[in-house]
Amino acid sequence: MVKGATVSAKKPFSRSLGKALGEKLVHELGTPPNACWLFCEPGDGMAEMLSGIVQAVGTTKLAGCTTDGEISTSGFSTGSAVLAGLASDTIAFEVASTSSIGADSESAGRRLAQQLPRTARHVQLFSDGLTGNGCAILRGMQSVFGPQVPISGGAAGDARAMKQTWQFVGSRILTDAASAISLSGDIHVGTGVRSGWFPAGVPKKVTRSAGNVVYELDGESALAVYRRYLGPLADKLPAVGIQFPFGLVNEAGSLGENPVLRAPMTLNESQGSVSFAGEIPQGSTISLTTGGSAASLLDASTDAARRAMDSLGAVSPSITFFYSCMARKILLGPRTREETERIANVVGRSVPIIGFYTYGEYCPSVSGTDCRLHNETATVTVVGSR
Question: pTM above the 0.85 mark?
Answer without folding.
Answer: yes
